[in-house]
């Protein structure tokens, strides 16, 4: 069985060279070798050749930037005055230096996200500590939507990235239970989350005591499908819920996957074979079991061949209260990977996550995975 860890150590640092957004600095601010270099853009239809001919007459060396109908080069005050007076010039901007955002290291992280970013077992075994280090790309997850159970959208940890989507079952539009807020925090909170730039959309389908009808949940999933079709954005549905085997529930989850939506599902907390749990057994979803800070299967976590991967899920500190939530770690990771390398099919994403994970380090699992029929 695969254990979700060392993902960031193995992927993110090399990927930053190719995938990170960029930041511009004024060349004078950073002491560039040429502090008088400018980019000049001409108005639409303006004859670039005639302006370049003028530069030749002034003895200015330039680079032709015909893609923007302009050029770049070192300009003195006289040249600037002449160009600013030209009716053909649209703008003159000082050149800049571009650099990648480096990774950031957070030193007040909970243990779950810290475990994702290193391959070795954590030396600090205190699950209540918020002094773990987590190295990440702060832009990853940007432009990605995560649909999660009812969320307190105004929570300061979400920084305006959360909004209410829909409610099914006749409940109020608020998270009075706290579970959805906790889950959202693990996936996306500024301190507790994996992907700190992702957008959060709340879809409430359970009562405030944490239970609800399958029909309401399927209605919520139907709404998610329509919302994703309308937005066209890379999207993840994080389902930290489940119940006894139910074909309609499974089919709804698989339908989301078939639309290209990434669906992360809790294996369940019954210490039993997850093949009897919906939608954990559904085809195409990412079914997540829970691990402990000591790299063992959590005593409550379901197991079996339908479990794709284990992730931190025991005594996780987040936005609301301690809870056992492995699933949003993986939802956040998917958003993170999409932000770095672009979207891909759910099947390809599962393969990528599996390739980044390590095996043979999680205790309490092997005896449960023999002679079971895979879901896929």
What keyword list fits this structure?
single chain, 376 residues, Rossmann fold, Alpha-Beta Plaits, 2 domains, seven-stranded parallel β-sheet, four-stranded antiparallel β-sheet, disordered C terminus, Peptidase_S8_His-AS, Peptidase_S8_subtilisin-rel, hydrolase, Peptidase S8/S53 domain-containing protein
Detail the topology: elements first, then pairings.
Blueprint: E1 2-3, H1 7-19, E2 22-26, E3 37-42, H2 48-58, E4 63-65, E5 70-74, H3 77-84, E6 89-94, E7 96-100, E8 104-109, H4 111-116, E9 132-136, E10 145-148, E11 162-167, H5 179-188, E12 199-204, H6 214-231, E13 235-239, E14 243-244, H7 247-258, E15 262-266, E16 277-278, E17 286-291, E18 309-312, H8 327-341, H9 346-356, E19 358-359
Parallel strand pairs: 10-12, 10-13, 11-12, 13-15, 15-17, 17-18
Antiparallel strand pairs: 1-19, 2-7, 3-5, 3-6, 4-5, 8-9, 14-16
Signal peptide: 1-19
Protein name: Peptidase S8/S53 domain-containing protein
Domain Peptidase S8/S53: 163-346
Structure, explained:
There is one protein chain. The protein has 376 residues and is α/β, with parallel strands linked by helices. The protein has two domains: 2-18 and 102-368, Rossmann fold (3-Layer(aba) Sandwich); 22-99, 2-Layer Sandwich (Alpha-Beta Plaits), CATH 3.30.70.80. It is 28% helix and 23% strand. It has nine helices and 19 strands. It has helices at residues 7-19, 48-58, 77-84, 111-116, 179-188, 214-231, 247-258, 327-341, 346-356, and strands at residues 2-3, 22-26, 37-42, 63-65, 70-74, 89-94, 96-100, 104-109, 132-136, 145-148, 162-167, 199-204, 235-239, 243-244, 262-266, 277-278, 286-291, 309-312, 358-359. The strands form six sheets. A seven-stranded parallel beta sheet has the order 11-12-10-13-15-17-18, with helices on both faces. A four-stranded antiparallel beta sheet has the order 4-5-3-6, with helices on one face. Helix 1 (7-19) runs parallel beside helix 8 and helix 6 packs parallel to helix 7. The longest helix is centred in the middle third of the chain and has 18 residues, at 214-231. It starts with a strand and ends in a 17-residue tail after the last strand. Mean pLDDT is 78; it is low at 5-35 and 366-376. Belongs to the peptidase S8 family. This is Peptidase S8/S53 domain-containing protein. One of its GO terms (molecular function) is serine-type endopeptidase activity.
């Amino acid at each position: 069985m695969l254990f979700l860890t060392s993902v960031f150590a193995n992927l993110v640092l090399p990927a930053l060279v190719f995938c990170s957004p960029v930041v511009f600095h004024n060349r004078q601010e950073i002491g560039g070798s040429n502090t008088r270099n400018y980019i000049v853009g001409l108005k639409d239809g303006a004859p670039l050749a005639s302006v370049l001919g003028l530069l030749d007459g002034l003895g200015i060396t330039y680079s032709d930037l015909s893609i923007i109908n302009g050029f770049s080069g070192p300009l003195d005050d006289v040249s600037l005055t002449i160009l600013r007076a030209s009716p053909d010039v649209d703008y003159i901007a000082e050149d800049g230096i571009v650099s990648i955002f480096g990774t950031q290291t957070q030193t007040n992280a909970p243990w779950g996200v810290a475990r994702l970013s290193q391959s070795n077992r954590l030396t600090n075994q205190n699950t209540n500590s918020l002094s773990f280090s987590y190295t990440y790309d702060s832009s990853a997850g940007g432009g990605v939507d995560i649909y999660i159970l009812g969320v307190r959208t105004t929570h300061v940890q979400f920084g305006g990235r959360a909004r209410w989507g829909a409610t099914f079952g006749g409940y109020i539009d608020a998270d009075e239970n706290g579970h959805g807020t906790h889950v959202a925090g693990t996936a996306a909170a500024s301190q507790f989350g994996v992907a700190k730039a992702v957008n959060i959309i709340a879809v409430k389908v359970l009562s405030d005591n944490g239970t609800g009808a399958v029909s309401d949940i399927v209605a919520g999933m139907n709404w998610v499908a329509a919302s994703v079709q309308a937005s066209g954005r890379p999207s993840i549905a994080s389902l930290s819920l489940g119940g006894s085997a139910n074909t309609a529930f499974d089919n709804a989850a698989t339908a989301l996957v078939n639309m290209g939506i990434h669906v992360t599902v809790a294996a369940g907390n019954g210490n039993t074979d997850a093949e009897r749990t919906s939608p954990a057994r559904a085809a195409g979803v990412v079914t997540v079991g829970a691990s402990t800070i000591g790299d063992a299967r959590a005593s409550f976590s379901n197991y079996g061949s339908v479990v794709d991967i284990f992730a931190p899920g025991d005594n996780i500190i987040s936005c609301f209260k301690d809870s056992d939530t492995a699933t949003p770690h993986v939802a956040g990771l998917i958003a993170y990977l999409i932000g770095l390398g672009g979207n891909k099919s759910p099947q390809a994403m599962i393969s990528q996550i599996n390739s980044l994970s390590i095996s043979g380090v999680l205790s309490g699992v092997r005896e449960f995975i023999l002679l079971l029929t895979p879901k896929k």
